[in-house]
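Consider the tokenized backbone below.
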């Protein structure tokens, strides 16, 4: 199982969290496991390969700039 930490610099409120979560739920196989609004991070996992570029693109479509760290 691959795990990923996503840093979203411009995530400021629960509305942002919901918007980011909606974008991430559209990525097949990706399961969001937690949000940390204070540190502006999202934790997620997948049983299959995680494509960091796909995550960044999905979040960019809803107005967020993100960086992805994949931890196996």
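A designed sequence for it:
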């Amino acid at each position: 199982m691959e795990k990923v930490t996503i840093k979203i610099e411009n995530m400021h409120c629960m509305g942002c969290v919901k918007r980011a979560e909606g974008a991430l739920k559209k990525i097949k196989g990706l399961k969001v496991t937690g949000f940390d609004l204070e540190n502006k991070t999202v934790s997620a996992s997948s049983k299959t390969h995680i494509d960091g570029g796909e995550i960044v693109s999905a979040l960019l479509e809803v107005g967020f700039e993100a960086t992805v760290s994949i931890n196996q």
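The radius of gyration is 11 Å.
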